[in-house]
Amino acid sequence: MTMGSNVSLTELSENVGSAIVSLGWSSRTGEGDADVSVLLLDGNGKVRSDADFYFYNNPVAADGSVQLLGKEPTGDGSEDRISFDLTAVPAEVERIVVAASRYEGARFGELDDLKVTLADAGGENLLRFVIEDAGQVSAIIFGELYRRGEEWKFRAVGQGYESGLAGLATDFGVDIEDDEAESGTQAAEEPADTAPQATLGAVPAPRPPAGEEAAPKKRTARPRTAKKKVTPPRAPAKSLAENESWRQARLFPVSALKNDRDRETRATSVLLSVMAHVPRFGRRITAPFGAPSGRMETFTEVSLPHGDTPRRPDGVIRVERAGKLWTALVETKTNGNPLKSDQVQAYMDIAARRGYEAVITLSNDVALEGSPLVDVKIDRRRKHQVALWHLSWAEVAHQAQMLIRHEGVGNAARTWLLQDLLHYLQHDNSGCHGFQNMGAAWVPVRNGINDETLCQGDPRALEVVESWERLIRQVCLRLGGELGQKVLPAQRTRRGTDPGARRARLADQLCLEGRLQAELRVEGAPGLLTLSADLRTAKLRTSVEIPAPEQGYPLTWAKRLVRRLAEAPADLHVETLVEGETGGPRGTLERLRPEPADLLPRDGSTRITGFRLSLFKGMGSGRGSAESGFIRSVDDAVHRFHTSVVAHLDAPASGRAAAKERATV
Predict the structure, then answer these.
(1) pLDDT band at residue 214 using 50, 70 and 90 as cut-offs
(2) Read out DSSP for 311-347?
(3) Cα(110)–Cα(206) distance, rounded to whole angstroms?
(4) Phi and psi torsions of 181, nearest 5°
């Protein structure tokens, strides 16, 4: 592209619901560097608030629309990558500005090979814009994404600012205090937990030298475009063991774990050690908690004074950037043990007195919005406030899977460390299996539904709904880790709806209908993956609805669908969806393969709107993760349905593909 030119993303790719923008440069001395930043602008060309300004200390949007993935070395310099989920960008945002800035008097004219590239969600490069002569500027707008109707376009900008990032940010409405705006290079003085507020902290401090910091990517379930990834071989090497009963020696053994205390101590030490030695993984874990990108050190069994008796948190994380420290206490639980409110409260008090930014709890449980795992009191009178965050072992395993299988860490030794960590987490004796118990209310609620004695307003139904939501979030993490794609729960509620009121409504629905239901949004799938658990019939149903093509003949649609499902299970149920009626023709795939025309309504004038594909599975009766357990049966049902059915279907046609299909018809 040339400066000032623009292009529609849908003209370049069918898969532009998300995009990866990469800013690159090289330096003659090998020491030149810059920091990237992103601004979301409304129709007036201004940020809606300072939270719309993203940089290394505020790297991810709460809605997932923007994620700064961090710096990665290339053959001729370095590259900073940014992930955009364009489907999640708020409607009031019309432009997304992508910029970079230098510090301590450095100018972009001292760098070579300034360029910006854009890739689609599959990693295919779509465009490239090279800035020929940057000149004596300390900030540059490389390009911008902007809306035109229902589509997104990219414009090559290349505009420089001699006033640096402070001048650029001020032009777009970010609040910069006067002393900050004059220097443009001072470090933020506020604690890291206030990073989203750009006042005082909007102008980033310089990054530490390259040798002191490895810049990993921000946590994300989608990018797969790392150029130098190192992944394990698909075909394992032949074992030299004398027989199959031999077990390979492991860096993190689990055989010596005898009790819960041993499991907690070992799990904490293993995780924190790998975080410190695999910077990209450590960054993935800590970035959502407000930690900056910098040199990380981790510690276990640290003694801290607290009244007459010192306290020993399970771990401490310290991240250094530009001479400033971000610190957090870590409290760990394994084997399904619950967090203790008094213990977490004590750590919150210690952290507040000693200036720690956060307390991170880590357990098998999954946190829900509006439903805290532990109740703690926060003293608002304290000048220094401490953030309380929760992390699930399932989330830790998900991040390890994403880096090992799909994105890479660029180093064989670090890949091996992550593999051993993942093996440890998945071992039966580690106690780090994630959410694995539907709770004490599960059996009484199932019995009450079968006996028709469960009444609306029963608090046990609400407990089951919360456990179901935790399970669905974990299922999304596991499926996303396997696919290397973003998988999220889809909730048909308005933004801002109170989570407690929504769960209460679902609990009443459970009492009336005896069903738990959820929808998963899988990137690249033709529709939402629906999961339903009927507690009356003890059946799980996984299904997806495929919209009918806009052009062509119904018989052609039916034949094409059956051909696509050649590898699908014979017991797959296929139902034709027709306009204005509750249901159309249906049958199993085994019966429909020789006669696809059986999917067509007998009344030829009835309009077909789509097809519903469903698989049924018996529901486990146990609460835990045993083979007969409910949680295991849900995991297996979703995995089987996606791999045997959804993976063989076409993604929804859009852009050039839709136009090409219409032209062909």
Answers:
(1) very low
(2) B--SEEEEEEETTEEEEEEEEE--TTPPPPHHHHHHH
(3) 16
(4) -65, -30
